[in-house]
Amino acid sequence: MWLLPRRLNTRIILKVSCILLATGIAFGWMNAREQTASLLATMRLNSSIMVRNFAESCARYLLVQDYAELESFLLKSADLPDILRLQVCEPNGALLWNVERGPDGQTQAKTGIARLVPPSSQSAVIAMEDNVLVIWQPIVAGSLLGWIKADFGLSTIHEAQSTTWRNTIFLVIIWIIGNAFLIVLVLSPIVQSIGRLTAFSKQLDEHKGTQISVGDQPLEIAELGRSMNEASVKLLSTEQQLLDEQARLRESEEMYRSLVTSMAEGVVFQAVNGEITAVNPAAERIEGRSFAQMISKTPEEAQWTALYENGQPFPGELHPAMVTLRTGEPQVDVIMGIHRPDGELVWISVNSQPLIAAGDTRPYAVVTTFHDITERKQAEEKLMRANADLQRFAEVTAHHLQEPARRMANYAERLITQLGARLDDAEAQLSLEFISQQARREQILLRDVERYLASDQPRSKVESVDVRQAVARILEQLRNRIKVTGAEIVLNNLPPCRIDLPRLNDIFTVALENALTHGRSQHPLYIEIAGERQDNKVRYSISDNGPGVEMQYRERVFRVFERLSADDAEAGTGIGLAILRRVVESCDGRAWIDETLGGGCRLLFELPAGEPL
């Protein structure tokens, strides 16, 4: 656009002239094209009629073998306008006569062409060859006597095209000159008014708020002048409002700066490229670096290093601020350890929040807040070590207490066997049986405690497991208990899951033992085992027709040592379902109890789905 003239009337004249010129050229091209097509069609028609007449004349001369008259006829015919050459040949293409128009415009007979290649059919052929109209016409008198070939030039058509183009260009030039004169005539008053308006607008800009007389101007200019006077007053008011708003903004910024500066939490501002633009004193204190060491640097450039809670390196691109800048999503309570320049490891909890302009979807900056949780982290580590020590102590205690319980049970049973018949006191015999029973129960309880403490520990390789096959093996191991209870067990579809086999055995063993123990009051006892894949999980269920579990107790049964019945006839220890839930949750699953249709208990648990086997 920089090539266009700056004055309005000159620019309009130039643009209109270009449009008219392009229109005229397009019109001339289309007119010349249509004229050429029309002339060429007329020429093809007239020429084909002419050559057909030539062929009839040639046939008469050839029949009477009057070759001298034939040559004279061809020489006269070649003098007609647009004919460049006439040739007569036999049916096989042997040339008989060749008459051409020479450079001087005179026709003459020539030789030297021994043979032509006539069309394969016996019909006339019209074609364009090298800008020449060529017509082949058969010479027929009862049979094919030969061919006449006529070449026609297109000079007449070309001359008509040139004339059309000259006339078109002349008319376009006249049209452009006339329109330019009309444009100047029409636009001159408008341009003058615009000039006066421009001078007025400059004066208005220099005297904001004042009322300037526009003078005697056209109605539109006067209306515009009054509008600009009103705008002058509004502009002055707006400027004052803007100054007041800037003052309030400065006060707000000062208040915000004071708030951020006084915060105990560290605050860091980063631009969209990750460079740090501002920090508060708390951030300098927590990170052990000054603002000068961090400004205009990304976390990597500021020699920022961090650790996950497991001690592995924390990549810079996964820093919450960088994730927020990439995704536009806030990051909450990300725990990481950072090394200060002095080598001290500090643990912090980090939150990042995107700053997004109105109407935009991508953040233009991010603000990160964090606080020092080193003391809390150290307390948690101490608590974890204490819990680990306590659990280890409980495991060792449970393991070693099983041997005294086993011996008590063995000795009580031996006394019953050896002295039972000689004990006259029935109460003494019952006491020995009670001691044996309680010792065995204590042994089972200690075994379950040991299983519970070890239930969330890693076992072996996690893989896709054939659950149906694993459950079949467990049922075989529980065959005697199943026989005693008289339970009917039905296996339905059991999709594979991803788990280590020992944990799977623990889960289904506890679930089936629970069903056999607490459902035995129902005769006959019916247990159904099923599974269903749901997205990336498999939901397994073990349903029985026992007494069921009331709604208020369905969470309680998963607690350690919780039993819904105090009757010792129920051999449960109160730990089985706690073990099951702990193992399931260690595999990223969940377990719960629901009611079956028609009553009974339905134990459900979900595990990660495995690949089809």
How many domains in all? 4
The CATH superfamily of the largest domain turns out to be PAS domain
CATH class membership of the largest domain:
Alpha Beta
- The CATH architecture assignment of the largest domain turns out to be 2-Layer Sandwich
Query: What is the beta-strand fraction?
Result: 15-25%
Please give the number of β-strands: 19
Radius of gyration: 54 Å
Measured between the Cα atoms of the first and last residue, the distance is 72 Å
Total helical segments: 13
- Overall 3D form: elongated
Q: Write down the CATH topology of the largest domain.
A: Beta-Lactamase
Strand order of the largest sheet: 3-2-1-6-5-4
Proportion in helices: 40-55%
Kindly describe this structure.
This protein is of the alpha+beta class and 613 residues long. It has four domains: 8-159, 2-Layer Sandwich (Beta-Lactamase); 263-370, 2-Layer Sandwich (Beta-Lactamase); 380-451; 458-608, Heat Shock Protein 90, CATH 3.30.565. 50% of the residues lie in helices and 19% in strands. The protein is built from 13 helices and 19 strands. The protein has helices at residues 8-64, 67-78, 155-206, 219-262, 281-287, 291-294, 320-327, 374-419, 426-453, 467-477, 479-485, 501-518, 576-586; strands spanning 83-89, 95-101, 107-109, 125-128, 133-140, 144-152, 266-271, 276-279, 306-307, 331-339, 345-355, 365-372, 463-465, 488-491, 497-499, 526-534, 537-544, 590-595, 601-608. It has a six-stranded antiparallel β-sheet with strand order 3-2-1-6-5-4, covered by helices on one side. Strand 18 (590-595) and strand 19 (601-608) form a beta hairpin. Helix 3 (155-206) crosses helix 4 and helix 10 (467-477) crosses helix 12 (501-518). It is elongated and about 165 Å long.
